[in-house]
Amino acid sequence: VAHPPETSAQGPFFEHHRPGTLPTLEFPGVKATLVAGEAFQERAPVTTHSPLFFLDVSLEEGASLTLPGVLGERAIYPLEGALEVDAGPVPRGGLLAADAAHPDRTVVAGAPSRAAIFGGAPLPKTPLIHWNYVAYGQGDIDAAKARWADGRFPKVVGDPATSG
Predict the structure, then answer these.
(1) Which residues contact 137 (CB under 8 A, 6 or more apart)?
(2) Of the ranges 34-48, 100-114, 129-143, which is most confident?
(3) pLDDT grade, residue 10 (50/70/90)?
(4) Which of 83-87, 97-101, 140-144 has the highest mean pLDDT?
(5) Cα-flanking dihedrals φ and ψ of residue 7, to 5°?
(6) What is the pTM of this model?
(7) Beta bridge partners of 105
(8) Nearest to 119 by CA among 70, 74, 67
């Protein structure tokens, strides 16, 4: 799979994808939307600059989903319900992470559940994150915040907050 070339000078940008354009993955008792990146032989249309994945996952009670080590670093953020990973509970509001060297991890729902599951190739260094901005330098974060405040990001079609 080809990825856009990595550059250290990638500027901030915004993409909007209409409902129904993101891949839906279905397994017994599990429905997931691939929001970004590549996982389970599917690829989302969102532009990425490194191998990664982000899934919005709903699980029925008793359903399970195995996250193979080939996905790289993986993190599970429970939003609703009760999840266990490899027979250990993952508290809602907590984050369970597994590095790329860790074997397959299996998520099991003890109740109807929803989670954000994401990860990918390890980053060369830890980025800074503020709201929707991710960068390696505070100056880049501050510049993106200023661009947003000045209305210099593209408008989101159909979003009354930005399409004025």
Answers:
(1) 128
(2) 34-48
(3) low
(4) 140-144
(5) -135, 150
(6) 0.70
(7) 67
(8) 74
If you ran DSSP here, which 8-state letter would residue 140 be given? H
Q: Estimate the share of the chain in helix, then strand, then coil, as percent rounded to the nearest 5.
A: 10, 40, 50
Strand-pairing partners, residue 85, are: 88, 107
| Residue 121 backbone class (left: φ over 0; alpha: ψ -120 to 50; beta: rest) | beta
Q: If DSSP codes are grouped into helix, strand and coil, which group holds residue 94? A: coil
DSSP string over 23-88: -EEEETTEEEEEEEEEETTEE-SS--SSSEEEEEEEE-TT-EEEE-GGG-EEEEEEEES-EEETTE
d(CA 164, CA 156): 10
Condensed to tens digits (0 to 9), the pLDDT of residues 110-126 reads: 999 999 999 998 878 88
Q: What tokens were used for 117? A: 């599951």
CA atoms of 73 and 149, how far apart (whole Å): 33
